[in-house]
Amino acid sequence: MRLSTKGRYSVTAMMDLAIHDKAGPVTLADISQCQGISLSYLEQLFAKLRKSGLVKGVRGPGGGYRLAKPANEISIGEIITAVDESVDVTRCGGRADCDNGDACLTHELWTELSNRLHEFLSGITLSQFVDRPGIPELSMQRDKMNGRFILARRQAEAISQGII
Fold it and tell me: In order of start, what are the domains of the chain with their CATH numbers?
């Protein structure tokens, strides 16, 4: 099984949103710059994430994207499924026709592995992963490297002063 960039980038972008959600909407340009993901690719992924009800767009100055529901209610499996990614490790896509139209000898093994992978990913929420040791520090380090830390701090100051 190999998770494509669609799944990996979607989870990375959603992690970025979850980490910065308290500071307000996050632009795709910020995510693109900080996470090294193509802006046009992010636009495609976010169209699917929005359609699945995982993110919502905020229009106007200071706009961008926010999580559509709390991070503790969004599983990694849900994100991967939203972008049409599969965690199926069978050769036949789960159809049981892998050996000339019949199930192969190991079909049940690969089906069970696929099910366990899906259960594992569905059992981890964004908030659980964001709260892991080292994740906040790594995020702040990347933000500083990309000049994002200063923008987030200015936005937080503007909010506290009632400007935004």
Answer: 5-86+125-160 (1.10.10.10)
Roughly what angle, to the nearest 10 degrees, separates helices 28-35 and 39-51? 120
- The tokens describing 152, both together, are 């987030």
Residues 78, 128: contact at Cβ < 8 Å?
Answer: no
Question: Phi/psi zone of residue 127: left (φ > 0), alpha (ψ -120 to 50 degrees), beta?
Answer: alpha
Strand partners, 58: 64
Q: How far apart are CA 3 and CA 8, in angstroms?
A: 7
- Whether 146 contacts 34, CB under 8 Å: yes
- Over residues 116-160, the pLDDT tens digits come to 999 999 999 999 988 888 887 788 778 877 777 555 555 455 546
